[in-house]
Specification:
Blueprint lengths: L1 H5 L3 H57 L4 H9 L4 E8 L4 E6 L9 E9 L6 E10 L1 H47 L16 H47 L9 H8 L5 E8 L2 H8 L1 H17 L5 E4 L2 E5 L6 H17 L2 E3 L2 E3 L3 E9 L2 H15 L3 E3 L6 H20 L3 E10 L5 E11 L5 E2 L1 H8 L5 H16 L5 E6 L1 H5 L1 H14 L5 E6 L7 H14 L2 E7 L6 H7 L3 E4 L1 H4 L6 H17 L2 E4 L5 H9 L4 E2 L16
Length: 643
């Protein structure tokens, strides 16, 4: 409503104000004049009535005082007047003496009624009242003449207003014409203001519009030019953005996102993923620039092979089956590709190199990239040139199980369900428990336990493994801080290389004061690849008072020379040698050599997997220091005790 009010035309506003002003002025004047005329006319008639009653009142008082009945003669001069409608005389007792009423016409107009007291002559005591009803016909006629006069005045004012409104509309007509032309204005067109009026104000408006029109035309041409340039730039930038979004910067091949969109066009697809073997070593040896150059050469070669390749990232490429080709033809093409690649020469600097590749294939798959990647991983682990995804092998299900286990490990850490059991290590000479090995478990919500072989290999592939190690060290050290036995904790090579884990272990040892009773078991089966870092860790721990054991010794890659250099305290002989020592002479010979070596350098030995009395007797006869296995003691929970 407010918006409509503000949008009213000027002429409408002027007309509205004129009508409102005229109405208010006329209403005020009419009201004031009417009040004056009414009062003057009414007072005039009232004075006439008063004069009449004053004229006849003395005669009526004398007649009433004397008791005569000559009222008719005395009052006839008044009652004959047309203006007198009624005359009434009452004595003091309210008795009606005279009751005259004119009967010749119906009384329709307003009347005036005046009453006076009749006074006794001489004493001037009231003896009665006289009431005169006087006609207001003259007043009514006067008011009717007044209404007629003001009716003509109102009509004249209305006509005058109408003429003024017509003149104002006529005066403002050029503005309407200008507005109509301006409303139809379009860029590139010029308005011709052919207004048939020459008032100076309108000419000024027209000149202003014409000047503005010229500027608008000028700016519109400039904006049109700018828009054209912007459209070109937007098109160019859009093309560049599409290139960045869908194409690889290094090789200019379509990327993974483009491949995913292309694959989405069909419900099932046949796809191969090619991975360059040992590309990291090429990067490390020749440098990243040389590696990028090699990737570009491979990309161009794959294009030359008419494979329409995609670059997925890093050293991986992908390509789809050619339209019209069968799955068997696709596999045959892969075999030819791998054969040709092994013979292809690529140039890095001044060097000519051969490269090898591994390929994973997904045939008619609804998850082609995922399944091709699964097949690629299978081929790499099995050291095959290529592999085809086979759902019956359950590889994808194993991945899902790994993901579920990883989530279970994370939740167990959060809910403090990583727990430790401790397996006794007994002295072969005395049969007494002298040490315990700390073995980690996950405790399910129902109280059941998950063994380390089910979750530690998965934890080692994530960032959770070091958290488990730190938790195990914390629990074991706090438990044995109140006990007398020695205890061992297993550490992997990655634990030793992780500076945060090493720092945490040092802090725990100092806080619990258990450094002189802890034994760190380093897995020999992993191979001590980072010899210097491992030697540094051993020196640091031994300086605190800890002992070092090499776990699973006898089947890995460590030799006796490394054992001497590392200055270890205990060799734990691998269980695969111990569990058949009573039946396999070759294993007994190896164990004898290990025990003899340990005795010569003054270190202890531990036989693992002692599962029977016969095996225990054999390891004791060989001079092994300690025995560990289900026969000597199963893993168990331990309680703290006061030392």
């Amino acid at each position: 409503m407010i918006h409509q009010h503000y949008n009213l035309r000027i002429s409408t506003k002027i007309i509205s104000m004129l009508i409102l002003s005229a109405f208010l002025f006329f209403a005020v004047i009419t009201f004031v004049t009417l009040s004056i005329v009414r009062d003057v006319t009414m007072n005039t008639q009232r004075e006439k009535a008063s004069l009449l009653i004053n004229t006849i009142a003395p005669s009526a008082a004398i007649s009433l005082f004397l008791g005569t009945k000559d009222y008719t003669d005395k009052l006839s001069a008044v009652t004959k007047l047309n203006e007198v409608i009624a005359l009434k005389i009452l004595d003091n007792q309210g008795k009606t003496i005279v009751n005259y009423r004119q009967a010749k016409k119906a009384i329709q107009e307003e009347t005036i009624q005046i009453s006076n007291e009749l006074l006794e002559p001489g004493s001037l005591k009231p003896i009665g009242t006289i009431t005169l009803t006087y006609s207001g016909e003259a007043f009514t006629k006067a008011m009717n003449r007044f209404y007629t006069l003001y009716g003509w005045i109102g009509a004249s004012v209305s006509v005058l207003l109408f003429l003024m409104l017509t003149w104002i509309n006529h005066l403002l007509l050029p503005i309407k014409l200008i507005a109509k032309k301006v409303r139809g204005f379009k860029l590139g067109e010029k308005i011709n203001f052919d207004i048939p009026y020459t008032q100076r104000e309108f000419n000024q408006i027209i000149h202003a519009f014409e000047g503005m029109q010229e500027q608008v035309l000028h700016y519109s041409h400039e904006i049109e030019t700018i828009n054209q340039n912007l459209e070109k730039k937007v098109t160019l930038k859009t093309h560049e953005a599409m290139q960045h979004l869908y194409y690889d910067n290094l090789t200019s091949l379509p990327n993974r996102l483009k491949l995913q969109e292309d694959l989405a066009l069909k419900p099932t697809n046949t796809v191969a993923i090619l991975n360059i073997d040992d590309f990291k070593e090429i990067n490390d040896f020749f440098g990243i620039d040389a590696g990028d150059s090699l990737l570009s050469q491979i990309a161009h070669w794959l294009v030359d092979m008419k494979l329409s390749p995609y670059r997925l990232g890093g050293d991986e490429f992908a390509f789809k089956v050619k339209p019209g080709s069968t799955s068997s033809q696709f596999r045959h093409d892969i075999e030819i590709l791998l054969s040709l690649m092994s013979e292809k020469h690529f140039i890095i600097g001044d060097e000519t190199i051969h490269i090898r590749a591994t390929i994973g294939i997904a045939i008619d798959s609804y998850k082609p990239l995922i399944h091709a990647d699964v097949a690629l991983n299978k081929a790499r682990h099995a050291k095959l040139l290529y592999s085809v995804y086979d759902q019956s092998e359950g590889i994808e299900q194993q991945y899902q199980a790994n993901i579920a286990m990883s989530a279970q490990i994370r939740q167990a850490l959060i809910e403090h369900r990583i727990v430790c059991q401790y397996q006794p290590i007994v002295s072969c000479s005395s049969g007494k428990i002298e040490k315990y090995e700390t073995l980690v478990r996950i405790q399910n919500e129902d109280g059941s336990l998950i063994g380390p072989y089910e979750f530690l290999p998965i934890a080692q592939k994530t960032k959770l493994y070091h958290h488990i190690t730190q938790e195990v060290v914390y629990q074991a050290c706090n438990l044995f801080s109140t006990r007398n036995e020695q205890f061992s904790v297993n550490l992997s090579g990655s634990d030793i290389l992780d500076t945060r884990t090493v720092a945490t272990i040092e802090n725990i040892l100092r806080q619990t004061k258990t450094a002189n009773r802890i034994i760190f078991e380093i897995l020999e089966s992993e191979g001590i690849e980072n010899f210097d870092e491992v030697a540094s860790f051993i020196s640091k721990m031994k300086a605190l008072g800890a002992k070092i054991a090499i776990d699973d010794f006898g089947t890995g890659y460590s030799n006796f020379e490394n054992i001497l250099k590392l200055n270890v305290d205990i060799l734990k002989i691998d269980g695969s040698l111990i569990k058949s020592i009573d039946q396999n002479p070759r294993h007994r010979i190896v164990v004898e050599a290990i025990v003899d070596f340990a005795h010569r350098i003054g270190i202890h030995t531990v036989a693992e997997y002692v599962s029977s009395e016969e095996i225990l007797k054999n390891v004791t006869d060989l001079g092994i220091t300690y025995a560990q296995g289900f026969h000597t003691g199963k893993p168990q929970f331990l309680n703290q005790s006061v030392m």
